[in-house]
Amino acid sequence: MSRRIGIGAAVARTLAADGWRLLLTGLPEFDGAQPYGGDPEGVPALLGELGDPAHVRADLLDPAAPADLVGEALRWYGRLDKAPHL
What is the reported pLDDT for 85? Predict the structure, then answer.
């Protein structure tokens, strides 16, 4: 999630509107190198729009990234579950 338009931003908005606590991730420099282009203000703008949820930089091509993201979510929120607002 590094652009204000796109699937990641749309999903984050929907989940935030439903009360979910979010840990967002993205690689703005990756998007910037793509034909569709980046959004230099995308991350800070979307985080502000969503109430400043947790955000970490992660390259999901790195095999360790998923486990690192789970660790970050636990660090930020103390647990993982499917119940919003807890």
Answer: 57
Q: How far apart are CA 44 and CA 55, in angstroms?
A: 10
Cβ atoms of 1 and 58 within 8 Å: the answer is no
| pTM for the full predicted model | 0.79
pLDDT in tens, 15-34: 999 989 899 988 877 778 88
Nearest in space to 5 (alpha carbons), one of 29, 33, 51, 36: 36
Please count the other Cβ atoms lying within 10 Å of the Cβ belonging to residue 30.
13
Residue 55, exposed/middle/buried by CB under 10 A (0-12, 13-18, 19+)?
A: buried
Q: Whose CA is closest to 56, among 74, 32, 40?
A: 74
Using CB atoms within 10 A of its CB, is residue 81 exposed (0-12), middle (13-18) or buried (19+)? exposed
pLDDT, tens digit, 9 for 90 and up, residues 37-46 = 788 788 889 9
> What is the structure's pLDDT at 63?
96
